[in-house]
Amino acid sequence: MAKPSRNDLPVRSYTPPRYAPHLPVVFLTINRAGSVGKTTFGNTFASTAALRGYNGLIIDADLQSDMSRWFGYDGDFVPDGVPTVHDLMLGKNRLDEVLVPARTRIAPDTAKRPFEIIPGLDLVRGSAKMSQADGELVQDGRGIFWLQSVLKKQVPEGRYDFILIDAPASFGRLSESLMLAASDLITMMKPMRKELRGALALKRNVEDLNEKYEDFGASAQCTWYCINDAKSDSGSQGQFYANMQEEAQSLFGAQNLLPGIRNTVVLPEAYDAEEPLPFWAPRSESMGTFNTITDQMGFPVRLAA
Ligand SMILES: Nc1ncnc2c1ncn2[C@@H]1O[C@H](COP(=O)(O)OP(=O)(O)O)[C@@H](O)[C@H]1O
Ligand SMILES: [Mg+2]
Asked: Which CATH number fits domain 18-296: 2.30.30.100, 3.40.50.150, 3.30.1330.10, 3.40.50.300?
């Protein structure tokens, strides 16, 4: 069977979330199993798009705050008085009070100027306090609509080309609240048959949620699927990996399947170095894959006018 070439794929455009038509696309990376590369995907896609001249807002809603660390901020030890996603969730601070510029580390030992700002990327930094989120959302009046409400009322029209939410692994009220705010979901999968089946089950969960909250503008679509060979010990070599990619294509449709990401050491290295991949290893094979992914997602390199 001939594989569709990139040129056969339709150019992507997105429908804004139904609860706030002035917003750009709101991506959320999800999966069933956890530790499958949600943060890796989000960090690399967002920094690649930013370097291509797009403006993005990243919301780190994971209590592990890996996304924040990768973008130059510690989520475990937040200085006193510095607001985070937790304060945003509780309505203690407004979005513009919580935003920080995403950063990349330029020299680990440079005490004076260890980070450089990545132009075009704003970050809502994460916090370990999000571990209490599921319970707190029951007490809060806005409850599971907190992020919908923030994005609807506090993101100015035209400010961003995309919004990306990084989610925790668990499935509770917090995750539901993130799905209610999202327009387009990116389902991450390991190259394993049970993960592909899990992704189908997840799609049904999303459809159920949309039905339940239809009157509240819930409209998240399972738009993208991506196989990432994160820390796999299955040694998913050549043929097996290709088979999974082909099976995923028939399950989810070629137009919805992103290029697979191979297992490689540069991705964990880039995280450790607190440098997004386009800074850490711009000429690596993985970066080539992410360039293609970013094209396919509708954020091509912009040619100078
Ligand atoms: N393609 C890959 N190759 C090798 N390691 C990867 C790859 N993708 C992710 N990882 C590693 O796997 C672990 C989980 O990835 P992460 O993005 O944090 O997943 P999640 O956000 O879903 O928990 C991290 O240590 C990350 O560095
Ligand atoms: Mg993560």
From this structure: 3.40.50.300
pLDDT in tens, the chain (305 residues): 444 455 566 678 899 999 999 999 999 999 887 789 999 999 999 999 999 999 999 999 999 999 999 999 987 888 889 999 999 999 999 999 999 999 999 765 666 678 999 999 999 999 999 999 988 888 776 789 999 999 999 999 999 999 999 998 877 899 999 999 999 999 999 999 999 999 999 999 999 999 999 999 999 999 999 999 986 555 556 777 788 899 999 999 999 999 999 999 999 999 999 999 999 999 999 999 999 999 999 999 987 65
277 lines ligand 1 (CB under 6 A): no
Give the whole-angstrom CA distance, residue 252 versus residue 174: 26
Please identify, by atom number, the ligand 1 atom nearest to the C-alpha of residue 41.
Answer: 17
Pairing of strands 56-60, 162-166: parallel
Residue 155: alpha-carbon gap to chain centroid? 18
Domain chopping of the chain, boundaries: 18-296
Amino acid identity, residue 296?
Answer: Q
With the most atoms of ligand 1 within 8 angstroms of its CB, the residue from 231, 272, 285 to mutate is 231
In 3-state terms, what secondary structure has residue 198?
A: helix
121 within ligand 1 shell (Cβ under 6 A): no
Amino acid identity, position 130: M
37 lines ligand 1 (CB under 6 A): yes
SS3 state of residue 54? coil
Distance 117 CA to ligand 2 centre (A): 22
